[in-house]
Amino acid sequence: MNSWSAATEEAARSGPLYVVVNASSGHHDGDDERQIMARVFEAAGREFEFLQVENPAQISQIARRAVELAKARRGVVVAAGGDGTINAVASAVLGSGCPFGVLPQGTFNYFGRVNAIPQDTQAAASALLGARISPVQVGQVNGRLFLVNASVGLYPQLLEDREAWKQQFGRSRFVAFFSGMATLLRAHRQLRLHIESAVDTDLRASELRTPTLFVGNNHLQLERVGIDAKHADAVQQGQLVGIVVLPIGTLALYGLMLRGLLGRLGDADNVDSFSFRRLSVTPKGVKRIKVATDGETAWLQTPLVFQVAPESLLLMVPAPAERAEVT
Question: What is the pairing mode between strands 17-22 and 76-81?
């Protein structure tokens, strides 16, 4: 039995689309993308409205406005952008009862790809019109949502440096790679963590030192970097996956980066991965720590609690004939 109402199903099939558009995502020209979406929706006779994000600082406010409109008129909230944009809009949608659509326009688009949503805007818009609700798992850290991953330590710094490089050199996988190389050249400190994890009633506690803790909620990303299949599959079974790197030097970190690109990270002796439903992390000596969620960073109070959100996101997933191959 579905956990959503018949009215929600009807909204997904024929309700107006409230599209939050972040024109700065990926390589796309914002005006061209809006024109493509508009043509597809108009040809199908589907009512729609664009809510343009001019200032990234306003995206949460605009996303909440989209939810208000969708609730009032029994419509669908749609995020058009990269994983960070999708995260911000999903944060407003979660728990609202509104169907959630995605038009991927970022660089990596792991959330769209894992849910078989086409990466081409015209194909994605067409698929959205015939899509149906499929609940998807959401991760949270101290209440902050993540759809793809969350992390502390070195990884958030990599993300911030990557964004600075992209602003200077453009958005591409090559820019992301070389910015990562540059980040690893700089000195970095080890985190001292107290970790308590839970899978059902099995509780475990440990102390460790690591340059970074990574928590995954996307089995495609985990598979691409070579994490053990049993852990990647755990995401599809209501769990999250933690990855920690043992204390190593800069040269060894370069080796891990290369292993990740080759899809062999899980083979490394100095990498440990584990699955869990709830993870409490207490960094020693700090009350606040920088945390990255789906590519966006924020300072959060410690301890950090990573867990599967009690509610699912009511994602609009393409019909079988319009699903993209998961690659």
Answer: parallel
pLDDT for 95 equals 95
Helix (H, G, I), strand (E, B) or coil at 84: helix
Provide the 8-state DSSP code for 321: G
Question: Is 114 inside a domain boundary?
Answer: yes
What is the structure's pLDDT at 178?
Answer: 46
Q: What is the pLDDT of residue 108?
A: 80
Same domain, 113 and 100: yes
pLDDT of residue 307: 96
Successive 10-residue mean pLDDT values, the chain, 327 residues: 85 97 66 94 98 92 98 97 93 97 89 95 97 97 96 73 56 53 57 85 82 91 80 87 77 59 63 90 93 92 96 97 89
For helices 83-93 and 59-73, what crossing angle results, to 10°?
A: 50
**Sequence-ordered list of residues with C-beta below 8 angstroms from that of 113, at least 6 positions apart, any chain:** 104, 119, 220, 324, 326, 327
Assigned token pair, 122: 């015209």
Q: Which of 21, 211, 255, 232 lies closest to 110, judged by CA?
A: 232
Residue ranges making up the domain that contains 59: 6-138+311-322
Residue 252 to residue 249: CA distance in whole angstroms: 5
Query: 232 vs 60, 157, 308, CA distance in Å?
Result: 30, 24, 15
Please state, as a whole number, how many other Cβ atoms lie within 10 Å of the Cβ of residue 83. 29
Structurally, the chain folds into a number of domains equal to 2
Same domain, 248 and 221: yes
Q: Are residues 15 and 125 in the same domain?
A: yes
- The pLDDT, as a whole number, for residue 210 is 86
CA dihedral of 160, 163, 168, 172, whole degrees rounded to 10: 140
Looking at residue 149, which CATH number applies to its domain?
2.60.200.40
- The DSSP element (H or E) to which 179 belongs, if any, is helix 173-185
Adjacent-strand bridge partners of 50 = 19
Shared-domain flag, residues 31 and 122: yes
What does the pLDDT read at residue 198?
Answer: 81
Residues 215 and 187 in one domain: yes
